[in-house]
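Side project, low priority. Logging it here so it doesn't get lost.
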Amino acid sequence: MSVDVLPPTGIVDIGSNSVRFVVFGGNARVPSTLFNEKISPALGRGVQRDGRLEQAAMARSLAALTRFARLARDMNLERLHVVATAAVRDADNGGEFLAAVRDAGLDAVVLSGPEEAELAALGVLSAIPDANGVVADLGGGSLELVRVADGAPGERISLPLGVLRVGGMSRGALAEQIALAVVGLGFPTGQSLYLVGGSFRALARLDLADLNHPLPIIHQHAIDPERSAVLGELLTTTPGEALRKITRLSAGRIEILPAALAVFQALIDVLAPRAAVTSAFGLREGLLFRDLVPAMRAEDPLLAAALEIGEMLGRFGDHGDLIDRWIAPLFGDDDAAAARIRRTACLMSDVAWNAHPDYRAERAVEMALHGNFVGIDAHGRALLGQALCHVFGSDFRLPDAVAGLLTPAECERASAWGRAIRLAQRLSGGAEKGLKRSTLELRPGELVLTVKGSTDVVGESALKRLNQLAAALGRAARVEAG
C-alpha cells in the first residue's frame, strides 16, 4: 500500500438549509478537511411557502458565496466543485440566483435528484464499503433514497420531503408518501438504513447523549429503530435550551429535529430496517470518491488512514504491514474483522514514539478512540485502543466504560496483539531488517522466536517482552537460531 495525495480541492455546497465551503486534502482515499465554513440561510424555506427563494436568504447566501470564491482563489485550489441541490433546483427564481452566483465568481452545477442521490450513496460507500441496504439522505428540501449493495449504488429516488418542507406532516402521512414512491424500486426491507445529512446526524447526536455513550462519535453509530419513540419523548418533553446543552447542537438544528424524527420514523415503518447506521460522509465526500480510479475506490478507508498516520508519525517510515505478517502466525484464529483491526494497530504502532515515555500509550489510545477516520465503529475503536495500550506498555488503560464495549476474550486478544507488536518494535528497533531475519511460531506449549545467525541480537529487553507475550498466550518462551 502507498498513500496517494489529493491536492487541495474545494467543494461549495449550496443546500436547501445550509451553504458550505469545504477544502479537502491529504490522503486521496480518505481526505482530511483542511477548511470548513458554513452558514444556514434556509434557502429552501421560501420554496416550500411560495415556490421562490427568499430575497433575504439569497442575500445571505450570496454574501457567503462571494467570500468563498475569494478564499478559493487565495488558496490556489487545483479544483473547485460548486453544486446546488433541491432549493435552487425547484425554485421559480433559481435561474436568477444562479446568475448572481456566477457574478460572485462561482459557476454552480445544479444536481438533479437522482444525481444527488447517487453522490450521497457514493459518500456512504466511501466510508462504509460493505454497506448493504438503503441510503437515506435528508436535506432541507428533499429526501433521497438509494439502494446500495456490492460496493455500488442502485435504484434511487428523490422526494420533496426535506425537513423544511414536511412541516407538521404526521409519521403516517410521510410513510404513505414514501411507500407509494418506492413501489417497484426493489428497496429491501429488514436490512440496514444508512443515514446521511445534518438532520439525521443531529438525531444520532441526541441518541448518543441520551445513552451516555462512552464514545459519542456519530460515524457508524447505529440507532436502534425501537428507540425512535424514546427520541420522540425527549423532543416533546425537553426544553430547547436543555437539548442544546446535552447535544451541543445549534438552535437551528434543534428546531428541525421533530421533522427529522418524523421522516426517520416513516422510513422505519416502510423499510423495517434492522439498524439505522449514521454516516459522517455524504454528498461532498461522494463527489471526491466518484473521481477516484477503481483501484483507489477499492482500498479500505480505515487501513488507508492508518497507513497515512504510520508514514507521517513513524520513525523509519511505515512497516506496519510487515509487523502484521510477522505476528500473524500467533493469531490464526482471528476472523476477518479482527484481523483488520489487528492490521490497523500494526500500521499505527509507532505513532507515539516521540511523546513523553509516560504518556505514549495515552497519546496512541487517544488517536484510536477519537481519531478523525472512518471505516470503524465504536467497538472497533475500543479494540484498537486496547491493542495500542499494550504496544506502548505503560500503566495507562482504557477507561472502564470504553473497555466495557469489549468482551473479556476480546480484551485478552487485543492485549496479546499489542504485546506482540511491542516485541516486534523492540526486536527490530523500529526498522524492517530485524523482522526480516526472524520469525515467531507457536508450538505445543511454546512460543518460539527463531533468529537467523546468532541469537545474541535478541538482547535482554526483547527477551523480556518475548516472555511477557508468551505468558499472555499461556506458553513458555524459547529463542533458537535458524
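Brief comment: The domain at 114-284 is CATH 3.30.420.150 (Nucleotidyltransferase; domain 5).
Revisit when time allows.
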